[in-house]
Amino acid sequence: MQWRYNVPMTNPHTQATAHMLNGRVVADHLINALAEVTEAHVAQGRSRPGLAVVLVGDDPASEVYVGHKIRACERVGIRSLAHRLPASVTEEALLSLIDELNQDEGVAGILVQLPLPEGINAAAVTRRISPSKDVDGFHPTNMGLLAQRTPAIRPCTPRGVITLLNYYRLDPKGQEALVVGASNIVGRPLMLELLLAGATVTIAHRFTRDLKKHVGRAGILCVAVGRADLIDPDWIAPGTVVVDIGIHRDEDGRLRGDLDFERARQKASWITPVPGGVGPMTVATLLQNTLQAAGIIPADFALKATHHNA
Ligand code: NAD
Fold first, then answer.
1. Residues of the chain with CATH 3.40.50.10860
2. 156-281 under CATH 3.30.950.10, yes or no
3. Residues recognised as catalytic
4. Inter-helix orientation angle 156-167/278-293, to 10°
5. Whose CA is nearest to atom 9 of ligand 1?
6. 205: Cβ below 6 Å to ligand 1?
7. Ligand 1 pocket member 224 (CB < 6 A)
8. From CA 211, how far away is CA 225, in angstroms rounded?
9. 207-265: per-residue pLDDT in tens?
């Protein structure tokens, strides 16, 4: 039997609306916990961990994301080492920078902001990063370890989603989970994370027939497509936990997710807002991965579920 999370009823005369999966709050908790561990580490006379952030070209969205990551490093006490390269840089030059960073003992983690300019093979760049410094978790070794249920460094957004669900005591075990979107950086590793957490996982993509049917069956619905309004909130079964990973701007320039939030929250039991849902979790998880790569926290470091559901 499909088990569903309770639908919160604030007032029997009004329609139910979902509880918030507040990524800002949870990411703050995680960042504070990581800052505490880092300060204790440094207080013992050990060196501060370093994160190399490589930004190629001048894509405005990438600039914003890198800015968030660098500021978050400061909050945790991680040294960020920014490497800005022009869009005209050759793949060879980028690969040799990665070789240097792989050798540099002051660098615990290496992040190459995607997308890369045309002409640079992103897969080759990802593979060049040493798996032990691959804080994005995209290296085939890290993806393979996650697939084999022995995760090492795990992709940030999917791991952040799991941390968020755990914080609110929403256990995916035994649940029907649907992941819409099958990219290498979000959909696929999220499928693996949910599988690892014991969910029965379906993954939908551009060739999926009858998306409506799959959405209606889901107890946990995760959407990472990058297209607004692909999913009609009427398809969502009452009580579904909804995780909206998409980020884009509407005609008025406001940030929004893949779902119509106001309508989806009438059906969901729990829902992530955009902004303020998965985005902050992605950044906080990057810092968690950096401390893990530095050997300061263990692979199974987890934020305690401190939230008490009513
Ligand atoms: P992507 O373009 O690489 O992948 C999109 C996926 O959607 C593909 O697998 C494709 O098959 C699927 N898709 C396309 N049309 C579909 C359809 N009609 N039905 C079902 N599936 C369909 O995108 P991505 O890099 O995975 O990013 C997805 C979204 O998530 C974007 O909006 C991106 O900005 C956002 N994102 C957010 C975070 C975060 O931290 N919140 C992190 C990464 C990406």
1. 46-130
2. no
3. 69, 113, 136
4. 110
5. 182
6. yes
7. yes
8. 13
9. 999 999 999 999 999 999 999 989 999 999 999 999 999 999 888 989 999 999 999 99
List, for residues 167-194, the tens digit of each pLDDT value: 999 999 999 999 999 999 999 999 999 9
The boundaries of every CATH 3.40.50.720 domain in the chain are 156-281
Q: DSSP label at 56? A: E
- Among residues 218, 180, 187, 216, which one has the least CA distance to residue 200? 218
Distance from Cα 229 to the centre of ligand 1, integer Å: 13
Closest C-alpha to ligand 1, atom 35: 246
Provide the pLDDT for residue 4: 58
Residue 190 CB–ligand 1 contact under 6 Å: no
Enter the pTM of the model: 0.95
Spatial CA neighbour of 101 closest among 74, 121, 120, 129: 129
310 band by pLDDT with thresholds 50, 70 and 90: low
Q: Does domain 46-130 have CATH number 3.40.50.10860?
A: yes
**What is d(CA 187, CA 143) in angstroms, rounded to the nearest whole number?**
12
- Give the Cα separation of 245 and 222 in Å (integer): 7
Number of residues in the chain: 310
- The finding on whether 181 has its CB within 6 A of some atom of ligand 1 is yes
Please indicate whether residue 231, judged by its CB atom, sits closer than 6 Å to ligand 1: no
For ligand 1, atom 41, name the residue with the nearest CA: 279
**pLDDT classification of 82: cutoffs 50, 70, 90:** very high
Tens-place pLDDT, residues 298-308 = 999 998 777 66
Q: DSSP string covering 171-235, please?
A: --TT-EEEEE---TTTHHHHHHHHHHTT-EEEEE-TT-S-HHHHHHH-SEEEE--S-TTSS-GGG
